[in-house]
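Human: Can I borrow your eye for a moment on a structure tokenisation matter? Separate attempts, laid side by side, tell us more than any discussion would. Could you pick a protein and write out its sequence and tokenised fold? No explanation is needed for now; the record alone will do.

Assistant:
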Amino acid sequence: MILAELDVRHTRRHMPTRRVALDASYLPMTGQSHGAALLEAVVAENISSLDEEQLDMLPKFLHSAKKGLMVPRIALRYRLQTDTHGLDRSRHRLLDEHGWLIIELDVHGAAVPQVIGAVMAAASMGQSSRLRALRAIEAAVQAPGVIPEPFIVRRLFHGVPRDRPPLPSAGPIPQPADSEWNGVSSDRRWAMEVLGFTAGSDLGRDDVQRRFRRLLRLAHPDHGAESVGAADRIAELSEARALLLDAVST
């Protein structure tokens, strides 16, 4: 059973841009505060990857989060945003498996966005829950790498869940239509979606190049596109093309 879930969206490791957003998460703060426990574990796991400058910036970032965060903004040299288009996903969960409390940490993405995502999630809560969540995060900052008992840690390269978390006092959540992507790696799926391919597309080099050229024209300021964000979009399209061309040639 899922007790808490945090979904952090971020640019992939090989992308030059640095962006972080939140996806739908389930972080209950009442009762045993499973949401706070998960946030603390995510930060404890990743906090040691902040460099010296980011660690110096962190107290100010946490102080700002106590009042809620205005997004978009820059924090720890990352752009915080609400748009999740084209971003990778790291999914962390707290599970009850036959009475055992399992912390599942998705470790395939860069570490710093996970810390930022945890703070963003805390800042998005109501005031009392927000302060409780931020206290948990601050405790993790003071004890990097320490995930206390009774939790058992499970580290996954891709933390894709078997089901979606329930919402408090709500009925079943419709399942996303993701089954057609079973067996497709997250990077390949991302690249296919960036270039507009569906899950069952039969990819060929000509198809990839054709889609890339068409979308590149639409994204380029010389053809009427907005200049703001154009460089990121062009880099995204180029990376997706390179990934798919490499896939179809092997």
In short: Residues 230-248 form the longest helix (19 residues). Helices lie at 34-46, 52-65, 112-123, 127-142, 186-194, 205-219, 230-248.
